[in-house]
Design goal:
By secondary structure, the chain is α+β, with helices and mostly antiparallel strands. The chain has one domain (2-102): Alpha-Beta Plaits. It has helices at 16-26, 59-65, 68-78, and strands spanning 2-9, 36-43, 49-56, 83-88, 91-94, 99-102. A 4-stranded antiparallel beta sheet has the order 2-3-1-4. Strands 5-6 form a two-stranded antiparallel ribbon. It is globular, with a radius of gyration of 14 Å.
Length: 103
């Protein structure tokens, strides 16, 4: 498994409620993305940057997502260039499901 952390600054701070509204509007586009296991939307404590933590089956699938079209969408919607950092995730603890998964 691969974890990708995406971050970017936003033009001006937003409330948690406004962030929820923005994120909820884009969430459906991630429902059927091949290889995406899970996505967590992020809002920094100071409310000046946002992003996501994505769990992927493979890096290749993740890289297909973070293409020029996706980057243009982020720039247009949020006015910033995203950064993407990849991590190998060899073990995942899922307390909600009661599982430890080795990948």
């Amino acid at each position: 498994m691969i974890t990708a952390v995406v971050q970017f600054p936003i033009r001006q701070p937003v409330t948690r409620e406004k962030a929820r509204e923005l994120f909820s509007a884009t969430a459906p586009r991630y429902r059927e993305v091949q290889g995406l296991v899970r996505k967590y939307y992020l809002l920094s404590e100071d409310r000046t940057s946002v992003g996501g933590v994505y769990l992927w089956n493979s890096r290749a699938e993740a890289e297909r997502m973070y293409n020029g079209e996706w980057r243009a969408f982020i720039r247009e919607r949020y006015g910033a260039e995203p950064t993407v950092t990849y991590f190998d995730s060899p073990v995942i603890v899922d307390n909600a499901a009661g599982l430890i998964q080795e990948a």
